[in-house]
Amino acid sequence: MSKKVKVIKVDGRQEEFDKEKIVNACIAAGAPREIAEKIANEIEKKVYDGMTTREIRELVLELLEKKNPEWRDNWEFFDRIVKKRITYERGKFVEVKQGHLYLGREVRDIGPKGLSNYEEVVGILRELEEDLEHGIPPKKINSRTWVLFMAVLKSKKMSKEDKEKAIKAINEFRERHGWKPYEVKRPIT
User: Fold this and answer.
1) What's the CA gap between 132 and 152, in Å, rounded?
2) pLDDT, tens digit (0-9, with 9 covering 90-100), for 174-184
3) Which of 36, 44, 63, 92 is the most exposed, having the fewest neighbouring CB atoms within 10 Å of its CB?
């Protein structure tokens, strides 16, 4: 893409389209890099000046769902736990224990963005445990722990110590359910 395309963010600000953001988000949702890059390339062909990030997000979600519905679910889970956003769509009921809930078809912020501390991660793990007890398939919960793990690693608000404790808690949760713990491949910062 030779021309710099400007897209409109949810808050109305403009920024240059950056397909690497799509690649990284797709990887965080569980897609392999090769598929994430294909999705980003397809979106890059469709993006135009003035396109909203909400429209881009919907295109990405559609492509993720076509490749693997679990990846779409992971993206929406990441939006909720890290970006503190929800989307009410396809007749789903969403319960949010903090912030404000807006029922509509658009993405809405529900609180400050980003994981802040270890306790927040432990709370999400408790929620995942409850989801298991209420019949959410273990495969989905397993996948969501990957998203949570990636969110902890990417958090700019959490201290190194909180990240280490959070990763330990995630891995203990995984081991309790018979899943292999995650390995940290780079130094935690």
Assistant:
1) 21
2) 999 999 999 99
3) 92
Strand 6-8 with 14-16, pairing: antiparallel
Summarize pLDDT for 22-39 with one digit per residue, the tens: 999 899 888 999 999 999
Cβ–Cβ < 8 Å for 65, 71: yes
Q: Any residues with CB less than 8 A from the CB of 17 and at least 6 apart, and which?
A: 1, 4, 5, 6, 7, 44, 47, 51, 56
Under 8 Å CB-to-CB from 122, ≥6 apart: which residues?
Answer: 166, 169
Q: Give residue for tokens 């799509």.
A: 22
Q: Is the dihedral of CA 94, 96, 101, 102 positive or negative?
A: negative
Task: Tell me the one-letter amino acid at 110.
Answer: I
Q: What's the CA gap between 89 and 132, in Å, rounded? A: 23
CA dist., res. 67 & res. 147, Å (int): 17
Which residues are CB-contacts of 125 (< 8 A; sequence separation ≥ 6)? Answer: 148, 169, 170, 173
Write out the DSSP string of 9-23. Answer: -TTS-EEE--HHHHH
